[in-house]
Design goal:
This protein is an alpha+beta fold. It is 46% helix and 20% strand.
């Protein structure tokens, strides 16, 4: 039997002072002073173990216990019992337990391995000493409660600051779960979010999924080993189904049975063997429909403990507030996502509308430009045609007026008749050109093809130009292979070359050479007309084949024409399956400019006719 100290060996006053000294100190040392209180009291009274408790359940960090034996206390049954006058011992091997109810409803437990063990100090002194210990215990509990309240306040403050400083929900969830775990003595916490396959709240119960979006574990390495972003169907988890049906109330349960062999992935993940206590608090939004009172379930906050403990009112209030805040954050995020989606959709529609408007504007602008170009061409054509029509008419009018004069010498009469005939021919040619161009553009016809000598054809064609260009001092130079045979429509080809030579003579510099060259190739033949003069500027080279187009200033320089010659050339070549291209060099200080037109015609065994 262990020898216990007698009352003569204990200085009650000195021991009480030592116990009272434990009430002073920083809040961070309260847990250590609680242990010191149980140790000093137990050793002084000769007990082998001592634990002090209030009438309400204590959190792990609030436990006041000490043991002289090398054994760990078992708080399992103690934590699951509603506190009463009889409390299961955390040291079941110690048979002799003495329980005393002291001041402030504090219970002091002294234990010894000897079943008949008794403290030997007088009862009145024992009660005085135990009441002193109870007062010290109450003071320490109060200090710890103040510390706890400060921790709660820090959680509120940190949550709001984190919410303001980051839009990343993972960071917010991680920080919140870690703080709650440290303050509430939680071993693991997590957040489950509902995933609806249709617009939120409209899917069937069997199609709803839950995903673990964030978790925290007191032992960080265990959190890293667990499955991240676990996803499971609601119907696959009986626990989540119970929590779903119990909404808006939280689900609190203790599960001690092993589910290691279960096929349920959620049960295996919850790890009931090591974390038997579970609290699921719903994260709620507004009602899905006005007629449906049940709120929309956004997800759950889950908390697990290794050692089951009742949840205090303060803890439940804190967790309710936190779930409400996180629900608000989720609703806000979902609303923002919907707004962003609507904005993106409207922006896409607006962009599409702007693109359509831009295309319409561009098309309208092009049409306006075309109309302006056509108007300009029409005005130029009218100016040119007016000039070409009025000039012969004016000359003919003057000639007729002179012929009416009496006593007009015969030689003068002959001169005026020749003038009338020349100007009439000029007027006739203009009208004929307009009619021919209209016919070429509006109808198709079969052109009969014939075989003829290129040299004979060219010699006959250039004879009028040699005489016509003598006053200008223009020299016509030709290069045609002697034995070359052409297969084409002779009249159309004659009109093409005639127009090109007329055009070259109009714009050639006096006292220069106009060169006509025929070049046979494998399956084609090229006819090139080259002259020296002002050249053709690059910006109008693509337009000179348009009807009625004339370069600026040609009318002022008294260069005759209507802008139809090259248009007729291109139309005739199209009927002959030929092409035309232009090359020009501008005027420089050293030499005159150049202009060169090259037509390309088929040169092979051609059919007897060409469909045009």
């Amino acid at each position: 039997m262990t020898q216990t100290p007698t009352h003569t060996q204990i200085n009650i006053s000195s021991l009480s002072d030592k116990l009272l000294q434990l009430t002073s100190g920083s809040s961070s040392t309260v847990k250590r002073r609680l242990v010191a209180l149980a140790k000093r009291l137990g050793k002084a009274l000769g007990a082998q173990a001592c634990w002090i408790q209030g009438t309400s359940p204590t959190r792990p960090e609030q436990r006041c216990f000490w043991s002289a034996l090398p054994i760990e206390p078992d708080w399992g049954e103690t934590s699951r019992v509603i506190w009463s006058s009889y409390t299961p011992s955390p040291y079941p091997t110690l048979a002799g337990i003495k329980t005393f109810t002291c001041a402030n409803d504090t219970i002091v437990n002294l234990a010894h391995s000897d079943f008949d063990w008794q403290p030997t100090i007088p009862l009145e002194k024992l009660h005085l000493l135990l009441n002193t210990a109870a007062v010290v215990y109450s003071q320490l509990q109060l200090s710890q409660q103040l510390q706890y309240q400060q921790s709660i306040h820090d959680i509120f403050t940190d949550f709001n600051q984190t919410l303001k400083s980051t839009s990343n929900l993972e960071e917010l969830f991680s920080a919140t779960l870690e703080q709650l775990g440290s303050v509430l003595a939680i071993d693991r916490s997590f957040i489950l979010l509902a995933k609806y396959p249709k617009p939120m709240g409209q899917s069937l119960l069997t199609q709803t999924r839950f995903q673990v979006v964030q978790q925290w574990h007191k032992n960080q390495h265990r959190s890293e080993e667990t499955t991240e972003n676990l996803v499971f169907l609601l119907t696959e988890s009986p626990i989540c189904l119970r929590a779903w049906d119990q909404v808006p109330k939280p689900l609190e349960m203790v599960q001690f049975q092993s589910v290691s062999d279960s096929n349920n992935v959620c049960d295996r993940w919850l790890d009931w063997v090591n974390l038997p206590q579970l609290l699921l608090i719903p994260l709620l939004g507004s009602a899905q429909q006005p007629s449906e009172p049940k709120p929309l379930i956004l997800g759950f906050m889950g908390f697990q403990r290794q050692t089951p403990l009742p949840w205090s009112d303060h803890e439940q209030t804190l967790l309710d507030w936190m779930s409400s805040q996180i629900s608000t954050v989720l609703i806000h995020r979902n609303t923002l996502e919907q707004v962003h989606s609507l904005v993106d959709a409207r922006t896409a529609q607006l962009h599409g509308s702007l693109e359509v408007q831009a295309r319409l504007y561009e098309k309208t602008r092009q049409q306006v430009e075309q109309l302006q170009e056509h108007l300009t061409l029409k005005n130029e054509f009218l100016d040119s045609v007016s000039h070409e029509l009025r000039t012969p008419l004016t000359s003919m009018k003057v000639a007729m007026r002179m012929l009416r004069q009496d006593n007009l010498p015969p030689e003068r009469q002959t001169k005026y008749f020749e003038l009338l005939e020349t100007e009439w021919q000029r007027e006739y040619d203009l009208i004929e050109n307009l009619l021919q161009l209209q016919k070429l553009e509006s109808s198709a016809s079969l052109l009969p093809l014939a075989e003829f000598s290129a040299s004979v054809f060219i010699e006959r064609l250039i004879e009028p130009f040699e005489q016509r260009w003598q006053p200008q001092g223009l020299n016509l130079e030709i290069h045609v292979p002697a034995n070359l045979t052409l297969y084409s429509h002779a009249d159309s080809l004659e009109r093409i070359i005639n127009e090109l030579l007329v055009n070259a003579g109009k714009y050639a510099q006096p006292q220069t050479t106009v060169r006509l060259t025929v070049i046979p190739k494998d399956n084609t033949v090229e006819i090139v007309v080259h002259n020296w003069g002002q050249g053709i500027s690059p910006e109008i080279q693509s337009r000179i084949f348009e009807k009625f187009f004339r370069a600026k200033g040609v009318t002022q320089r008294a260069i005759a024409g209507t802008g139809l010659g090259l248009a007729i050339v291109r139309a005739l070549l199209k009927h002959l399956n030929g092409t035309i291209r232009v090359w020009s060099a501008p005027v420089t200080e050293q030499e005159l400019g150049q202009a060169q037109f090259t037509i390309t015609l088929p040169h092979n065994s051609m059919p007897s006719t060409v469909l045009s």
